[in-house]
Amino acid sequence: MIPGVVAGAAAAAGAGGDYATLLASLGPVTYLRCNDNAANSTVVDVSAAPANGALLSVVNGVATSAKNTDTVSAAGLLAGSSDKAFAIAGSAVVTSPAKTLTSATGWAGTCIVRPDAAPGAGNSNVSVIMQLVGDGAGCPELRLVHVTATTFRLAMYSSGVGQIASTGAVTWPYGSKLVIVLNKLPAGKLELWVNGVKIVESTGEPTLNYYAKPSWWGAARFGAALTAFYQVIGSVDECALFKDGPLTSTEIEDLAAAA
Q: Is 13's pLDDT higher than 70?
């Protein structure tokens, strides 16, 4: 069980503050909270945030950067919450501060995403939902792969190196809201969970490179310049990176239920 959360509580939660409280209870986290203001840097979302507040990158409650909601905000993806989400398209970039991940300890990356349209053909029909601690080839990466005019699938990659595992047989329609967890077991497999269900896992421990660099959400960093590529055409919300170990299946299921 998650500390401080009674059985069934997550399923009853729906508003952004409840989800944020649950998310923050799971461990030390790099947490991107949307449409808050500089005076409020707690880990709990504020459902009554000002319409033109700042989008804050928050590390354990300490604001580290801000973005203007006029350029990268959209309707939030949590039921019952008026928080804004990150709208990703064009040149929009959302990053979280550098963290150190290790294969031996394990880790987890999670976000809520709603891809509204197919990635452009110029992007090889691929979008990147999360690129963790990315600064070169081999970092953990989760991709959206266009399948048909109305559907997509997800694939786990080590960026620039090769595919770890993919969900070739599982597709979702554009416009779907997905609660995603990329979960790395200690010295073990890499798992992909969607809406509380484990979709696929690697056949063994994948070879990944960890750079202690910022993570990218809704896009990927490629090349020497901090330039975003392969943006998601849609929204990303409630991004979090757990550096001290993976989430349990119960915790992942509770997050999906609370969203």
A: no
Instruction: Provide DSSP, the chain.
Output: --TT--TTHHHH--SHHHHHHHHHTTSSEEEEEEEE-TT--SSS--TT--TT-EEEEEETTEEEEEEEHHHHEEE-SSTT---EEEEE-TT--EEE------TTT-EEEEEEEEE-SPPPGGGTTEEEEEETT-SSTT-EEEEEEE-SSSEEEEEEEETTTEEEEE-TT--EETT--EEEEEEE-TTS-EEEEETTEEEEE-SS-------S--EEESSEE-SSS--EES--SEEEEEEEEE-S-PPPHHHHHHHHHH-
Domains, the chain, ordered by start: 9-258 (2.60.120.200)
Q: Say what percent of the chain tops pLDDT 70.
A: 71
Distances (CA, A) of 101 to 37, 106, 183, 241: 29, 7, 12, 10
Per the CB < 8 A criterion, the answer to whether 157 and 143 are in contact is yes
pLDDT bin (cut points 50, 70, 90) of residue 225 is: low
Q: Is the pLDDT of residue 159 over 70?
A: yes
Q: Exposure of 182 by Cβ count < 10 A (0-12 exposed, 13-18 middle, 19+ buried)?
A: buried
Provide the residue type at 77 as one letter: L
246 is written with which tokens?
Answer: 């993976």
Full-model pTM: 0.83
Q: Which residues contact 124 (CB under 8 A, 6 or more apart)?
A: none
| Residue 94 confidence class, pLDDT cut points 50, 70, 90 | confident
